[in-house]
Amino acid sequence: MNTASKPGGGRVPAARRRRIRNYSFDRISFMAVFLILPLAIFVVFVISPFVQAVYYSMTNWTGFSPLMGFVGLSNYVKLFQDSTFLQALRNNVLLALVVPFVTIVIALAIASLVTVAGSSKGAVRGIRAAGFYRVVSFFPYCVPAIVIGLIWAQVYDPAAGLLNGFLTGIGLHGFANFAWLGVVATAMPASMWVIIWSFIGFYTVLFVAAIKGVPAETYEAARLDGAGRFRTAVSVTVPLIRDNVQTAYIYLGIAALDAFVYMQAMNAGGGPNNTTLTMSQELFNVAFRKGQFGYATAMGVVLAAVTLLFAAIVFTVNRLTGGGDAARRPRAPRTRRGRVATPAAAVAFASERREGSTR
Question: What CATH fold (topology level) applies to the domain 77-358?
């Protein structure tokens, strides 16, 4: 056995010498800078505040006094007996269900149009002026959320709003002085559209980048085998960029579960019968208008738990429906000719075509 002498006549095993040599100054400094330091920052600025929030949610702290009494879980019991908070929770769940789905569908449609939905002859490409459409669709994302909310609040204005002016201008006089944000039936849909409109551009660019990474031979084989644009998008594009769609869904869900800025700008009071009230708005009202910071912190903890639950559900559904490695093996689309087009067929076709051109 390879050993070395050590004081006292003993020998140091080779394996131990290698372990000692591995812990050099460079290795230790690298671990300190890139592992220990980020972990310490995460604990101090993320884990510690969350633990403090859980503690504060079990007190009757007013926010403006160092005194706080421990009340246990009574804030949480009161929370789920509060009809206003439960209405806000239902509104948030509705936003988390509708906003991500509609945004992703529209963004995917636009991304497909500007990348692979062009002419059916020649190279696979998008529609004409695709760059222009990408720039126009991305523009709303460059505008701050508070500005978007204020602009759309003016657009929805019953008396001088652009929307009512346009609708009455084309002969729909029933919309004269119609309060889009003041009617129960339209307040939430109108608010949802503002959030959707503001995010479409960013996720269009995200999906365009993802589609650009798909081999052109895949789309070419599907096209030559007769697959329509819709079938190609559903059975080829979506499975191949599934990880991007999952990421987009999670981020959009988190944004929808908050939605404070948009809702506060358009309907600071929560809308008719609290139709557009969100948990973050109710938290703000309870903390800064009623001075019940302990109770408001309990709302924040519930909001964080709902957000984590939403992300877990998205990951679980993605895994149960064939996510992960299976997402990279798209289902073969049925074509108008009754045949199928697969990525493997696309690669084989492209190889045969290249071999034929070199003969």
Answer: MetI-like fold (1.10.3720)
